[in-house]
Amino acid sequence: MLDESRQALSALIEQYAGQHPEEAVTCERLLQFVRSHPDCFSRSCVPGHVTSSAWLFDTTGKRVLLTHHKKLDIWVQLGGHMEGEARVLDSALREAREESGIDGIRVCSEALFDIDIHEIPARGEDPAHLHYDCRFALQTEITDAFELTDESHELRWVAVHKVRGLTDEESVLRMVRKSPGVALA
Which of 7, 117, 127, 163 has the greatest number of beta carbons closer than 10 A? Predict the structure, then answer.
């Protein structure tokens, strides 16, 4: 029997799978992981853990806030580990606020915007492991006041159609393709 948090996430994944049949393999991998690991939200879970991310739009929906991640040295969306939240959406909101310093962030939809499974390389005492990332579309009116944290080299508002100029990471470009009214150049 799944606990309430894993049941809720399973329902979100099933809903997402119905809307994105082209991602059936990834959805099934994520579902199987959540269902077979009671500690799936914990950083200590081996071989990986559920993480959450924010695809943070400005009010026009034409720009997103990206971070040049220090540890990974790539441009990605805001996000990170669950820290005791019962819902992945709450974690995504917290991560967006912590990594941007912006308090005025609202949820565009409680449905998953994207999912991704990616390997995190070994670092220090942490072995290589997988992040089962659950991503949500968020929005803010505050675009001129953000704070750089020690997790980022840089934060930058980027026109969604120009994200490809910063990264060729497929998981980020997939979110660009899902963004309303945007076509990749």
Answer: 163
Phi and psi at residue 177, in whole multiples of 5°?
A: -65, -30
CATH of the domain at 150: 3.90.79.10
Q: Number of folded domains in the chain?
A: 1
The pTM for the full model equals 0.93
User: CA end-to-end span of the chain, whole Å?
Assistant: 47
Q: Which residues contact 22 (CB under 8 A, 6 or more apart)?
A: none
17, 20, 50, 118, 164 from 37: Cα distances, Å:
20, 24, 10, 17, 35
